[in-house]
Specification:
Nucleoside Triphosphate Pyrophosphohydrolase, 2 domains, seven-stranded mixed β-sheet, homodimer, Arc Repressor Mutant, subunit A, DNA-binding
Chain lengths: 224, 224
DNA sequence: CCAAAAGTGTTCGCAGTACACCCATGC
DNA sequence: GCATGGGTGTACTGCGAACACTTTTGG
């Protein structure tokens, strides 16, 4: 049997100051019953990205909002039976595109808080660590965090998202000054969303056009 | 026939203010006679990195000094015959570890100036572009450029290396001040190397220990 | 009126940048 | 002594960092 090619997806979701990952429960050996990253074998006539999207669709029904290749894992022995080389991707989804499902014994798919993970199958912990690392570092030089929010969001959500994922406090005034300085957020006429508590914030939307224009010229994002 | 897994290597060498890539001439169709990146199929029991090193050894005899995974290319149709997914790596070699071989019709391996490349087989131009991009950006936040110099080198070589690869002029005083500030270069007692012209420079060596210590603590390189 | 979150400006220090002259060597 | 590259210090400026009070809303 020759080398088999698979994909795995590390899909993050953010809500209520928690960063989640989508995991699926394995039905068959090896690692039967363990939680694992969604993924599977690449078909003959699909691209790698298509394979990831198809598997995600089949296994989780998740609608992905951002997807990029992460790394390819190919150590012999990472799958105890065959030689499987896996191209890992990492993806982001909006809160409105997933429901938080608590992990139960019956569940087949669930979102887990990245701070409270179960044991994972294969080398998936390693893959997840790399994805988390990539997410954190990329957050500071590209505004990919916006893919974790709904299309319209109050600015405070963005602040909290950064603080949650980077796991550090951020000066609200400096953060806003800097982020707004890029000019990639549009203030919406829509009045503030319903606020549970406190003063409601204005709503903003990501201006993709403006962002691409800036990226062409080469600009430095560099959020801390 | 199932999907085949291969590796390709983009190996850079630097000398005399020129950045070179190692290419091999293809002996068989498709693209017979074209220049291509060294690479080949992954064997059943070797890791991806071992595969790259083996192929490099077999096809070019090059002694590699730095190697990292670049990206995995898997579009159906990138190889006109079969479905081949290729994990690309990028590598760096020291000047003392390669001889510049001019490309001739007889040559099987040659170093090409990255500014003067022949047509390449498959999507290898695309791979090479990505590697160049990665090299340039990585140069500014990790001192990987040192892997392109001999273990002992005059500081001026480092300056010229950065200027060549980044294709821009650099203020010598600021560059030295900043680079030296990291404390990862040791001045050697060895007197200056033979200089062709002008005043000979002091020799320096990369202090890997010091560098790793710094990296642990998390420091920002950021050379421009 | 109290609690909770939104919104906003100024000061300080440092690091990046710009800039030019003298030194050592080979021929 | 001339050409070539090596080696060095200072002043400016702009950006990141630190920092606290007022406003709006719901209860």
């Amino acid at each position: 049997m020759s080398i088999q090619l698979a994909t795995d997806a590390v899909v993050f979701g953010y809500q209520h100051e928690q960063l989640f990952v989508a995991l699926v429960r394995r039905k068959y050996p090896p690692f039967e019953g363990h939680w694992a990253l969604p993924g599977g074998f690449v078909l003959e006539n699909e691209s790698l990205e298509q394979a990831v999207r198809r598997e995600l669709e089949e296994e989780t029904g998740i609608k992905i909002n951002y997807l990029e290749q992460l790394y390819t894992f190919g150590e012999p022995g990472r799958d105890p039976r065959h030689r499987v080389v896996s191209v890992a991707y990492f993806g982001l989804v909006r809160p409105s595109d997933f429901q938080i499902v608590a992990a139960t014994d019956a569940a087949e798919v669930a979102w887990f808080d990245t701070k409270d993970l179960p044991p994972l199958a294969f080398d998936h912990h390693h893959i997840l660590d790399m994805a988390l690392h990539r997410l954190r570092s990329k957050l500071t030089y590209e505004p990919i965090g916006l893919n974790l929010l709904d299309p319209q969001f109050p600015f405070g959500d963005l602040e909290r998202l950064y603080m949650t994922i980077l796991d550090q406090s951020i000066d609200r005034r400096n953060f806003r000054k800097k982020f707004m300085g890029f000019g990639i957020l549009n203030e919406l006429p829509a009045k503030a969303a319903t606020a549970d508590k406190g003063r409601p914030g204005k709503l903003y939307a990501f201006d993709v056009e403006q962002y691409n224009a800036l990226k062409e010229k080469g600009f430095l994002f560099d959020i801390k």
